[in-house]
Amino acid sequence: MLERIKSNFTESIQTKIAASEALAVPIEQAGMVMVQALLNGKKILSCGNGGSAGDAQHFSSELLNRYETERPSLPAIALTTDSSTITSIANDYHYDEVFSKQVRALGNEGDVLLAISTSGNSKNVIKAIEAAVARDMPIIALTGRDGGDIAGLLGENDVEIRVPSPRTARIQEVHLLVIHCLCEIIDTTLFPQTED
Ligand SMILES: O=C(CO)[C@@H](O)[C@H](O)[C@H](O)[C@H](O)COP(=O)(O)O
Ligand SMILES: [Zn+2]
């Protein structure tokens, strides 16, 4: 068991090192898409399933409250939190629609969709992306493995951040680091700290 634990740490560290080489550029691009949207008075919607639902909420809470430094609240909505809305859409329509219906209701042109799926194949995340495309919203996709079906849906204004790993847990661990990088880009660009 101890060997298994150590090997999880080693694998996670190695995945993060590989990701730092592969993903620094798309993370910067994604951060700038978000910064531009926020400067334009737009908001960021986020979605995902399971651990990625947690990541979607983690991101929105850091915008709505704060990340590391004092700054004004920023507009973000996690589409994973309203159990009445999610259960009624799943019950009356289909679980595939739980995010897309919210994107159609809440998303406006220029808002950003942060779509999180380790496989890139979750149907409800794919439908959320399709709804965002129809609303002229740029998409930031956090994926893994081969990018799944999501990779083929993205356009030139969108950014895919694909973690180079086949394991869901390892991919999720890097997604959280990516989310913190995005928060730091947003904070340092919008609210640069002056040195005393
Ligand atoms: O956290 C984990 C596994 O580490 C699970 O809850 C995982 O997020 C769920 O199985 C998701 O449904 C997987 O969806 P996706 O990442 O393929 O879109
Ligand atoms: Zn997990």
From TrEMBL:
GO biological process, one term: carbohydrate metabolic process
Compartment(s) where it occurs, according to its Swiss-Prot or TrEMBL record: Cytoplasm
Recorded metabolic or biological pathway in which this protein acts: Carbohydrate biosynthesis; D-glycero-D-manno-heptose 7-phosphate biosynthesis; D-glycero-alpha-D-manno-heptose 7-phosphate and D-glycero-beta-D-manno-heptose 7-phosphate from sedoheptulose 7-phosphate: step 1/1
Binding sites annotated in the UniProt record for substrate: N49, G50, G51, E62, N91, D92, S117, T118, S119, S122, Q172
Ranges for domain SIS: 34-196
Superkingdom of this protein's organism: Bacteria
Keywords assigned: Carbohydrate metabolism, Cytoplasm, Isomerase, Metal-binding, Zinc
Recorded GO MF terms: carbohydrate derivative binding; D-sedoheptulose 7-phosphate isomerase activity; zinc ion binding
Enzyme Commission numbers on file: 5.3.1.28
One cellular component (GO) term of this entry: cytoplasm
UniProt-annotated binding residues for Zn(2+): H58, E62, Q172, H180
NCBIfam families listed in its UniProt record: gmhA, PRK13936.1
Further comment found in the protein's record: The reaction produces a racemic mixture of D-glycero-alpha-D-manno-heptose 7-phosphate and D-glycero-beta-D-manno-heptose 7-phosphate.
Function: Catalyzes the isomerization of sedoheptulose 7-phosphate in D-glycero-D-manno-heptose 7-phosphate.
Complex and partners: Homotetramer.
Protein name: Phosphoheptose isomerase
Record organism: Thalassotalea algicola
Designated gene of the protein: gmhA
